[in-house]
What does this fold into?
Amino acid sequence: MHKHFGDVLCEQVKLKKSHAAIGLDPNLDKFPHFILDKAVQAYGKNPEGASFAIETFNKLVIDTIKNNVAVIKLQLAYYEVYGSHGMKAFWETVRYGQEQGLIVIADAKRGDIDTTATAYAEAFLGGGMWNHSNQTVADAITINPYMGKDSIEPFANVAWKKGCGVFALVKTSNPSSIDFQDQELECGSSVSEKVSVLLSEFGQRYIGKEGYSSIGAVIGATYPDKLKLFREKMPHSFFLVPGYGTQGGTGDGVVNAFNGDGLGALISASRSIIYSYIHDAHTFLSEEKMRLAIEKSLAQMNQDINAALLRNNKLVHTMNC
It folds into this structure.
């Protein structure tokens, strides 16, 4: 029997004393030259060279953060842009991250129904007749549930069989999310609220010993008042909360994403952590200075969130380990 995703998540968050989910969103324009030069010398300026640079960069970041964070999140677009070579870098990063004890979320935002949704789920979480048993798979996937219940169920079924998790978009962090997600229905609730209720009801089937479902929700940090609303509507769901750091989210702003036990939320940050060295002359940046900048920015993020939780009496269980 597979371990329950929600239980594993709670265990690792407590162990690392960190609620952060660090996004590995590779942008070659921001990479230090000690990585880029090596890639160009070995392969040239082409997708194969990009793949080498991405793998090298990601492994360096993982080695730097692995003791102080439980989760990494990989946005697929940054890998798919380099074709098969980019996807090789994606799966190598998944494998290496898990090897280093991290939970890996594939930020794919897939959305479809029936057999197509099942195929998407199996592509990232494993399954299917011809897949081998030692295939590298992600621990969780983000999905778009706006096609309805039958765009959620196939992902949930595969995830449950594999001991994996699903995070469904509910209220995203981008400003124009109000265009559709905030539209009021005849019943008086918004579209995103309707989706949250559906997900919460659906997730009841998959609750683990820690009280959390393996079906979670994506709720943006840029809307603190909405975090409180959705926390009340989805008490058993883990939230994946993008928008911290570069987009303006803060520790005080994300407190409402957490339950009273100090659990229930993963706060996502990418650029503010992995490119925190950019304010230096990163063209000639050394590996040591890069690591120090990333370590410092992650420590500040963990401190910011944990201090905010402490001020709101929500830290007791996460620090009791």
